[in-house]
Amino acid sequence: MRICFTSDLHGDAGLYDQLEDLLRIETPDLLILGGDLLVDGDPADPLGTQVAYLQSDFMARVARWKAGLPGLTVACIPGNHEWICSQDAWQKHHAAGRLVLLDHRRLWHRDGLAFLGYSGTPATPHWLKDFERLDLPDDPLPQCAGVVWDPVQKTGRSVSPAEHYDRHRAIRQELAEAPSAPDPWFLVCHVPPYGTQLDRLPDTPQPIGSRAIRDFIQERQPRCALHGHIHYSPGVTGSVIDRVGRTVCINPGQDHHRLHAVIFDADRPEQTLRHTVYRLR
User: Fold this and answer.
1) What is the C-alpha separation between 189 and 209, in angstroms, rounded?
2) Are strands 30-33 and 73-76 parallel, antiparallel or unpaired?
3) Among the listed residues 84, 218, 55, the one whose alpha carbon sits nearest the alpha carbon of residue 156
4) What is the maximal distance between C-alpha atoms in the chain?
5) Spatial contact of 2 and 264, defined as CB atoms under 8 Å apart
């Protein structure tokens, strides 16, 4: 099975047009989208902005891709720029069979492979907090307040760090819910593992990935783990690939002009990996 993976398109029409061209040329069997896929929603009206974009523009593109490539399956996870109400909308399309919404609590199977997805990220400076969590249970509270979806008022509402992070389990605790996956299996996480070639920013000396994600990969050892979130990391480290134990971990990066995506054979991810921008060998 041939897989195409990209992430962090942020509703950019130019990047989505390039992805459509790539799909037509490469004809993959499975397209995986690793979060931060939609335009940022207006905190006063996430339903009328981000969810409206999902329902019209995003799903229209998915339908067009699948019509042009009848064998194509599209799978995705949300990222930290997505509102939780957008995940609810994706879930309805998942139930209708239009796309696959990957989740860490349930396995999805395709062509003898199992897949798990996870969207939570450690705290960031971004104002939307729906998918942000403490990384480890004993981590100190971040200082950044933000906004979360209010399902009663159907709008965004301000939230303090204590209110938000205390009401959610840490990433390590959420990942403990994940079922055991039979080999071979793939993990799709928005945030990359800590201390790799995949989680670095310019002018920031320390890694900014997730320790909990790294520990989970080290313990469970999927064949391949796919990540995004840190757009600039490949430009900083010169690499889109690293290993945690036996697991091949990939972050293609992203920018505003040229689509960063990878194509690979699911049986041999590292040996067959190709990038749309970087020469890997």
Assistant:
1) 11
2) parallel
3) 84
4) 53
5) yes
Tally the C-alpha atoms within 13 A of residue 138's C-alpha that lie toward its C-beta.
0
**Which domains are seen in the chain, by residue range?**
2-275 (3.60.21.10)
How many other C-beta atoms lie within 10 A of the C-beta of residue 279? 6
pTM higher than 0.90, yes or no?
A: yes
Residue ranges in the chain modelled with pLDDT below 70: 281
Question: DSSP letter string over 35-63?
Answer: S--SPPPBTTBHIIIIIHHIIIIIHHHHH
- Residue 181's SS3 state is coil
Nearest-10 crossing angle of helices 13-26, 59-68: 20
Tokens of 122: 């450690």
Distance CA(34)–CA(78), nearest Å, equals: 7
**3-class secondary structure, 65:** helix
Tell me which residue has tokens 């969810």: 51
Q: What does residue 273 show for φ and ψ, rounded to 5 degrees?
A: -65, 130
Closest CA to 73 of 104, 94, 50: 94
Give yes or no for a contact between 102 and 116, defined as CB atoms under 8 angstroms apart.
yes
In the chain, beta strands by DSSP E: 2-6, 30-33, 73-76, 100-101, 108-110, 113-118, 146-150, 155-159, 185-189, 224-226, 241-244, 247-250, 261-265, 274-275
